[in-house]
Structures are given as C-alpha cells and as structure tokens.
Amino acid sequence: ESSIIQRYNELINTCNNIPTETPLPLVKFLRWHNLHNLLNIKYIICPRNIQIVWLPQLKHIFSDKQADIYQNLTCLPCAFITHNFEVHKSKDVLKRLSDGLFDFSRCVILEDTPNLVPVNMPAEGNPEILKYSLNEVIIQAELKQPGLLVLTDAWYPGWQADIDGKKTKIYIADYIFRAIELTAGKHQIRFSYQPK
C-alpha cells in the first residue's frame, strides 16, 4: 500500500522540518529530532567531510579516513511497554509527535481508542524479542498492570497478532508503528504477516 510508504515519508520529513508532502528519493536526516529515538536509530554514520553538531545523546565511537560513527544513547528499543497513550486523528498525529513536548518513552499516540485507561507512569520491564524474521516476530513481556506493547516495525495490512494464542487487534501507533493491548501478567505475543 502506497499510503504506508507515504506515512513513513511524512514522518521523516517531520524529523527534517520540511513540508510533509515533499518527496524524498532516499532517507536522509538533515537535522536531529527526538523522533529519531522512536525510529530506533542507534548508530549514525557520517562522512568525515560533514561536521555533526554535538548533542549530549550522541557518543562518538569510531573514526577513520572516510567516516565517523556516533552512538545514539537515547534511542528506544524496538519493542517497549507504555501505560500512557493519547488518541488523535491521523491528520493530527505528526503535529503532536513533533511539538517538542511529547515523551516517546512514556506515551504512545494511537488513532483508535483501546480498552485501557491511560496511566502516566514510567515504562515497566523490557519485552524480550524471542524471534525476529521477515514474516514473524515473537515477543515475551511481563506487566504488573495493563499496558500497551509498542513494536517499532511498520504497521501494514496483513499483519496479524495474537497474545498467548488468541487473536488481538493491532493499533497504528505513533503514525507508522504497531501496538497491542496487554493485560497484567506474563505473555507471549506473536506478530505474523498473513496477507489476504
């Protein structure tokens, strides 16, 4: 679906502070934005002839004649738990994500309302990815109270999810990603790609 690629392009353009409708022939980052943490960008490779603005979250870890490599110390994991959420129409999500006040590590933006009450509290635990392949992701998570598991892989029609063997709804999270509701307790979550 071209709309999924369009959404990704719009998110990258938001990071770069350029109009969302601007087509990008390839992904490049023109400036640092906290959205990069959400995109799980852990390393930045920069040609030696380009000076990168020093930011406290970027740690220089390697240099040679051609490039410098920086580690992003604040990137979020590929899968994380949050107990807080906001619900916005899709047209308003990018504005909220880029307002500079949104804390990606403590909250997720959904386009549909889940059966949870949002709670502003720190994330708990670290979900463990047991299997990660093109068509299947298996995650184990344990929660003390109900919350949302966010997987920063692209939401796309055809992806299915089950929790402990029971089908569950996948929400569009933070404009392009996936999230599911979890009850308190220990769970095994399986995302599988099953196009129709």
Stretches where pLDDT falls below 50 for ≥5 residues?
none
Give the end-to-end Cα distance, rounded to a whole number of Å: 13 Å
Averaged pLDDT: 88
| Strand content range | 35-45%
Strand count, sense and barrel status of the largest sheet are: 5 strands, antiparallel
Number of strands: 14
Helix content: 10-25%
Which structural class best describes the helix and strand composition?
mainly beta
Alpha carbon gyration radius: 17 Å
User: How would you describe the shape?
Assistant: globular
What is the succession of H and E elements? HHEEEEEHEEEEEEEEE
TL;DR?
Helices cover 13% and strands 37% of the residues. It is mainly beta and 196 residues long. The strands form 4 sheets. Strands 7-8-14-10-11 form a 5-stranded antiparallel sheet, with no helix packed on it. A 4-stranded antiparallel sheet has the order 4-9-13-12, with no helix packed on it. A 3-stranded antiparallel sheet has the order 1-3-2, with no helix packed on it.
